[in-house]
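Input structure tokens:
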């Protein structure tokens, strides 16, 4: 059903036998580092990043290299020169997150082609985390990184799950997708044991989600679309000094507080003064300092209340 989902929603014709159940996407990253990138080289992570990406390399005795994203005309873009330099300096694996938690970007084919050229030139590998792929807004579409070319397919391990879009994370089931014969051979040798641990209930729920969950998800995305717009409107009105660009995918917002007077940990500040829980951007990498990652997947009245309470807390400084 995962392969069917990719075929239905994207141009990627994934052979079913190349999709394997694993307990979760982070396990997929661990498997990628252990089995498919065994040299022990550095792990390159574009930042701000999903927080565990910054911790996983060290747990696998790897060095982490943070490559900050850049902002061009209010839009986040990859620093291709810095990625190139990181590979030249011992990088082995690049972690891509598309759609991008926490900044909400959905990668374009051209961006991915440029990245794949760099990875290929250095003989590197990509771990493509596509866990948020089912949650993309209107005009954008998900393009799986491994689908863009034979070259990309040759150096990529993809991980996806129904767990974000259909809220199944507790059931422990994700999928790893192989896209070249060499990786299939490695999986056949060692992969079965690595992938052990997906739960039967999770497998059944994922099949149901991928097979029959699209109508429900369309309604959820519609609701989330309303939330991301409400957040834009209320932020502009009540906290105009806070910068926010609407995400193209995911239910996460990246809020920039650099023009406000708050200069302490934003998670502590808003939890204590506004009763709102969010993640301080510093946990997503150095580039995230004085920013915050805010999850807006909640009932709209609650979202409005959260924004009002945050605005009140900022005014009280
Ligand atoms: C980008 C990304 N990858 C991985 C995960 C974790 O997924 P899993 O529970 O399947 O490891 C999350 C959860 O927030 C996520 O946002």
């Amino acid at each position: 059903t995962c392969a069917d989902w990719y075929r239905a929603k994207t141009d990627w014709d994934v052979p079913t036998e190349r999709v394997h159940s694993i307990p979760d996407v982070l396990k997929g990253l661990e498997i990628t580092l252990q089995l498919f990138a065994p040299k022990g080289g550095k792990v390159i992570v574009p930042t701000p990043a999903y927080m565990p990406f910054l911790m996983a390399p060290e747990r696998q005795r790897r060095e982490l290299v943070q490559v900050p994203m850049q902002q061009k005309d209010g839009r986040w873009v990859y620093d291709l020169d810095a990625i190139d330099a990181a590979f030249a300096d011992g990088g082995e694996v690049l972690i891509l997150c598309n759609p991008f938690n926490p900044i909400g970007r959905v990668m374009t084919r051209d961006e991915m082609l440029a990245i794949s050229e760099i990875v290929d030139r250095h003989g590197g590998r990509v771990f493509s985390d596509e866990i948020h792929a089912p949650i993309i807004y209107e005009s954008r579409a998900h393009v799986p990184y491994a689908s863009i070319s034979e070259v990309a397919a040759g150096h990529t391990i993809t991980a996806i799950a129904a767990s974000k879009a259909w809220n199944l994370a507790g059931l422990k089931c994700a999928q790893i997708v192989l896209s070249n014969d060499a990786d299939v051979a490695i999986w056949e040798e060692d992969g079965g044991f690595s992938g052990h641990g997906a739960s039967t209930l999770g497998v059944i729920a994922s099949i149901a989600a991928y097979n029959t969950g699209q109508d429900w998800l369309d309604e959820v995305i519609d609701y989330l679309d309303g939330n991301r717009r409400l957040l834009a409107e209320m932020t502009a009105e009540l906290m105009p000094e806070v910068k926010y660009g609407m995400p193209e995918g995911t239910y996460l917002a990246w809020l920039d507080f650099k023009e406000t007077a708050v200069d302490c940990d934003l998670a502590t500040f808003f939890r204590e003064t506004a009763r709102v829980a969010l993640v301080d951007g510093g946990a997503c990498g150095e580039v995230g300092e004085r920013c915050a990652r805010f999850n807006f997947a909640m009932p709209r009245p609650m979202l409005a209340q959260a924004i009002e309470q945050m605005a009140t807390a900022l005014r009280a400084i």
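The chain has eleven helices and 13 strands. The pocket of pyridoxal-5'-phosphate is lined by residues 24-26, 50, 97, 101, 129, 131, 161, 163, 169, 174 (CB under 6 Å).
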